[in-house]
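Bug #77: duplicate submission created two jobs. Keeping one. Sequence:
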Amino acid sequence: MSAKIVRENILFIGLNFPTPNALLFFLGCVGLFNVAPRLQLRNVLLGLLVLFFVFAFRYTVSDRYAFFIPFYCMVSILIGLGAYLLQKKIRHHWLTYTVVISTVLPVGVYAAAPALADKMNVSLGTRGDVPFRDDRGYFLQPWKTGYRGAERFAYEALRTVGDNATICADTTTVAPLLYVQQVKEERPDVKVISGIVRSQGAPRLTKDNIEQLLDAGPVYVVSPKPGYCPQFVLDNYDLAPAGILWRVDERGRKR
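Kept job's structure:
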């Protein structure tokens, strides 16, 4: 846990509730002690709220934002309770209109967020090298209608590699490659390998068998960045740009 992770976690929560209605969460928490028909129900709701929050907040992995989803659900329940209690206490049409307008406000925030982040040069802390994916739009806008970046990447990668090639992918990029290869029956001669899954019959990529794979056909990696490419490849081989991929060459040898 670090100050950077704490700041990012707070930004995750703010990004999911960019509306004044988020303040109703606190009213809902207070009201829970007054309207809960049974003590057990109140304790369960508060217990789940705290449990989901602590569970997600303590994680340090880069995709920990996904672990906050159950917490967001509990927050939404309490925001709804807060809105209910507020309208019971203040019976004015302007209050209803304000709450409704604030409910749709996040749509505008998400629509403008990528452009604002780009203008302000805000770093999202993402890898930033996945082909056909704009990280600011991908991570700051919930809707994915019309997004086909993963499919474009998979087809482009499989269609541009040489015969009997090996593609060493990471956990982000391996799934679309395997889907296009196995479901769409694209390039069955290519071996797709990652640390968690690989195409049928493909071996693991290790420092002991990489020379055999290089003799059988060209070897490519999706990313030249540490953590997304085997370290022994970075330490012992040269990487040459090959379209959207990187070809693995013997050090000092140009193809």
